[in-house]
Specification:
Largest sheet: none
Radius of gyration: 27 Å
Number of helices: 6
Order of helices and strands: HHHHHH
Strand content: under 5%
Length: 180
């Protein structure tokens, strides 16, 4: 019971913050933001595809680095005197040799991996933010449509003066802009 109420309050707060941040005053602005988020998603997708293309020449090196990182702990344990990790140490040394044959030091490979990881992470976070804004804009647009037709296809009446409640928060924000 309380969990649902808290969830609904969080959604209302999210909607209010969105309306205030974009100074939304009508459905057309909500529609424009929803359309803009579609364009932003397309741009984000294009940037992610471009990043994947940029990574292609480094794929083999990055796969080798991943194998190295998997064996790194065991190799260190062998160096500390744990003889049972000799085979893992040998594998690690062979992988390190392959990396050097490719023309990369371990440090260069790690820097390249970090570069691509950071770019991927930034695009992932950006996409998540865009999807959230799109979802909120569409949810608010639907609520505005429902308020306008009162869910019956007929035009809804305005609430009486002095009426206060969560249902009027959206209508007031759409008609008069965010307060504060």
């Amino acid at each position: 019971k309380y969990r649902a109420a808290i969830h609904e309050l969080k959604k209302l707060q999210e909607e209010f913050d969105f309306l205030a941040a974009y100074r939304i005053q009508d459905k057309a602005q909500l529609k424009a933001i929803s359309d803009a988020t579609k364009e932003q998603l397309w741009e984000n997708s294009r940037a992610r595809k471009q990043l994947r293309k940029e990574m292609v020449p480094y794929e083999e090196m990055l796969l080798l680095l991943n194998k190295l990182q998997e064996k790194q702990m065991e190799a260190k344990l062998y160096q500390e005197g744990y003889q049972e990790f000799f085979q893992d140490h040998q594998t690690y040394q062979n992988l390190l040799g392959q990396l050097k044959e490719m023309g990369y030091s371990l440090s260069e490979a790690e820097q390249t991996d970090a570069y691509f990881f950071e770019k991927e992470e930034r695009l992932r976070i950006e996409r998540k933010k865009i999807l959230k804004e799109k979802r909120i804009a569409e949810r608010l647009h639907e609520k505005a449509e429902e308020k306008e037709t009162d869910g019956t296809g007929k035009s809804a009446r305005a609430p009486p003066q002095g009426f206060s409640g969560p249902d009027c928060a959206l209508r007031g924000s759409l008609q008069h802009g965010p307060r504060g």
